[in-house]
Amino acid sequence: MIGVIGTAPAEGTISCGTPDAHGGNMDTKIITEGTTLLLPVNVPGALLAMGDLHAGMGDGEVGISGLEIKGCWPWVIYTLAWATARWAFPAWKSKAR
Question: Of 69, 72, 19, 77, which Cα lies nearest the Cα of 47?
């Protein structure tokens, strides 16, 4: 799973390790293959960031540890002009291919 997925905050700067409305370090097992994640676009270009891959961990790295790995993943990004997400949230899950 990808631990950090987020866009730039509406104002100022924020560490990618901080979860907030923009996404950030979410570390949740809910976001897996086939999940659609809606993220707010707060600044022109959104400034999407993704990283912190895990092979295994508890939700939220509750044990203060995860099995960190290197890797790459296929992803598709769409801009939904009709959507007005104010907070990052998983919206729906499609069947894994």
Answer: 77
d(C-alpha 3, C-alpha 17), whole Å: 9
Q: What are phi and psi of 59, to 5 degrees?
A: -60, 130
3-state secondary structure of 60: helix
Contact (CB, 8 A) for 49 and 4: yes
State the burial class of residue 95 (Cβ atoms within 10 Å of its Cβ: 0-12, 13-18, 19+): exposed
| Tens-level pLDDT at each residue, the chain (97 residues) | 788 889 998 889 888 778 888 988 887 777 777 888 889 998 998 899 988 888 877 666 656 677 888 888 788 888 887 777 788 878 766 665 5
Cβ(91)–Cβ(34) below 8 Å: no
pTM for the whole thing?
0.75
